[in-house]
Design a protein that fits this description.
Shape: globular
Order of helices and strands: EEEEE
Structural class: mainly beta
Largest sheet: 5 strands, mixed
Number of helices: 0
Distance between the termini: 31 Å
Strand order of the largest sheet: 2-1-5-4-3
Number of strands: 5
Helix content: under 10%
Length: 94
C-alpha cells in the first residue's frame, strides 16, 4: 500500500518532446465564455483542458507581504474543433 502525503514523488520519465517555447510557438486562438473574463481572447498551446485566470485582490496594509489573487477556472468545450477554441467558465471550481 502506498503512503500519500509524505512529500515523496516517484521519479518521472519524460514521455514526449518538451513543450515549445511559448514566445516562439504560434498556438491557437481561444475565447473565454462566461464568468468575469467573458470575451477575453488568448492563444493556447496544445489545447489544454483547463485555463486558469487570476485577478489581483486588494489587501489591507499589514506586516506580511502576501499577494492575494482571485482564481477563475475555464474548461475547454470538447465540441469545438476549430479556432477560436471555446473555454467556458466553470462555476463550481474554487
Amino acid at each position: 500500500m502506498r503512503s500519500y502525503g509524505t512529500g515523496e514523488a516517484p521519479p518521472r520519465t519524460p514521455t514526449a518532446a518538451p513543450d515549445p517555447d511559448p514566445e516562439t510557438a504560434a498556438g491557437e486562438q481561444a475565447l473565454l465564455d462566461g464568468g468575469p473574463a467573458h470575451g477575453t481572447r488568448l492563444r493556447v498551446l496544445g489545447r489544454p483542458a483547463v485555463v486558469q485566470v487570476t485577478y489581483p485582490c486588494r489587501t489591507e496594509d499589514g506586516p506580511t507581504p502576501f499577494r492575494v489573487d482571485a482564481l477563475y477556472v475555464y474548461r475547454r468545450d470538447p465540441r469545438v474543433h476549430h479556432e477560436p477554441l471555446r473555454y467556458g467558465y466553470d462555476h463550481a471550481s474554487p
